[in-house]
Amino acid sequence: MNLFRVAILLLLMPVLSLYAQINESMTINDIHRQMDLKKLTSVQLVEYYLERIKRIDNNGLKLNSVVQINKKALIQAKELDDYFKENGLKGPLHGIPVLLKDNIDTLDGMANTAGSLALAKNHPKQEAFLVKQLKQAGAIILGKTNLTEWANFRSTSSSSGWSGLYGQTKNPYDITRSPCGSSSGSGVAVSANLTTIAVGTETDGSVICPAAMTGIVGIKPTVGTVSRQGIIPISHSQDTAGSMARNVTDAVILLKAMVAVDKRDRANLASKIDYASHLRIDGLKGKRIGIVRNLMGYHKKLDSVFEQAIKDLKAQGAVIVDNANIETNGQWDDAEFEVLLYEFKQGLNDYLQGTKQGNPKSLEQLIEFNKKHRDKEMPHFDQEIFEMAQAKSDLSDQIYKDALQNSRKLTREKGIDAVLKSHNLDLLIAPTVQPAWKTDWVNGDHYLGSATSAAAVSGYPHITVPMGFVKGLPVGLSMFAGRLQEGTLIEAAFGYEQATKHRKAPAL
């Protein structure tokens, strides 16, 4: 080895030593222990992720998951390091970098775009309530992540992870495959270790599906427990932010930081759950778990992995009840879509009216904007969902009221609640979604099936946790239950995760 190479290695040794300390298996608690031991600072952690984003996301594989960077992140990290020296931890997320899906308002010099050229300069007047909660907990907003444009509510033939403003996000396990959506960038960034944790949003599957397809943990909480103020909306009946992390522990810590009462949210729902107390190693013992067989059967290899998961659950003391099917499955699809069309029009118009001058002020104006910028906004798919929503009247329409009542009844009292009650169950399980399909700008997404809809439409909690692999592609195990039953789900998810340790990082 020549002297020049020796000199370079000597210069890099402190950096290499630091990088050896920061690895993708570390939890937030591990990071804080390193801070206590003075082996790691928030500045070093932020620098580590900024370097990875530049090397892997922007260059290298060009995953295209992180689309905006908070230019003040290192300054904020230094302030938190100084605070720590004098006072200790500010909160449970002290010094932890968090990425936000780019449909969440923040005041860190970043626009809130929904992935659309129309909102490229949409700099919010105030930050979302959940962002305030994160900062109070000590988090650093590292940047924003790409998404399926308008949270995948513009076209029936969209491609998950594609937006007119930022382009296509890629799955880190196979860059030719879909990351699912609409929280595509958040899932990919967490999976590729470009951040410690990330926030996604879900209307139906938009946290759970990308989490499963990128091999991470996703938690969609009971609707209303996390404020939606400052989030570009689809549906006030179903929208919620959710947590995305490489392990159940971090997902729970992030969720707890976001949960708080906000009376400005029309679905405001107080939660008294002590989320972290449910991180129990024996969380599966005695749990009565129902298998929803009519949420599977669309992919044989996926089903095979799921059958092994059932054995693993039994081995940890769970009581398995087979054929706990949701008999109304699929009966709510038309009603759900009707509700989303009506609520999207009103919710989006309300959000746009509150933006600064220069932005479109209505769905109607957005439709016209897209037509004028068709070459950039609609090179692959159109905006037929926008046009269907624009054709709807207001929420006083009886068609809307009937659809809302019907979708809730079919997913709640005749759906999840009925199955849990009739079989005396704690929770339900199914495979989350198939392995990632090839990204296809001609035909759009290629869904075969998923377990997301019942929990999404009912507004009930849902967790997906890594279940294994199919031909090198990660697949997830879905766990869902009744209203405010996050504690039960966390116990089951943590117990399963700790017993199986299925997650393997993508070979970047």
Notable traits:
508 residues, alpha/beta, Amidase signature (AS) enzymes, 11-stranded mixed beta sheet, two-stranded antiparallel ribbon, 17 helices, globular
Architecture overview:
The chain has 508 residues and is α/β, with parallel strands linked by helices. It has a single domain, classed as Amidase signature (AS) domain (Amidase signature (AS) enzymes, Alpha-Beta Complex). Helix content is 40%, strand content 13%. It contains 17 helices and 13 strands. The strands form two sheets. The protein has an eleven-stranded mixed β-sheet with strand order 1-3-2-6-8-7-12-13-11-9-10, sandwiched between helices. A two-stranded antiparallel sheet has the order 4-5. The longest helix is centred in the C-terminal third of the chain and has 25 residues.
Q: Based on the coordinates given, report the CATH architecture.
A: Alpha-Beta Complex
- List the uncertain runs: 6-16
- The percentage of residues in β strands lies in 5-15%
Report Rg: 22 Å
CATH class: Alpha Beta
What would CATH call the homologous superfamily? Amidase signature (AS) domain
Mean pLDDT over the full residue set: 96
| Major beta sheet summary | 11 strands, mixed
Provide the CATH topology: Amidase signature (AS) enzymes
When the domains are counted, the total is 1
Count of runs of 4 or more consecutive helical residues:
17
What's the count of strands? 13
Structural class: alpha/beta
Quaternary state of this entry equals single chain
Shape: globular
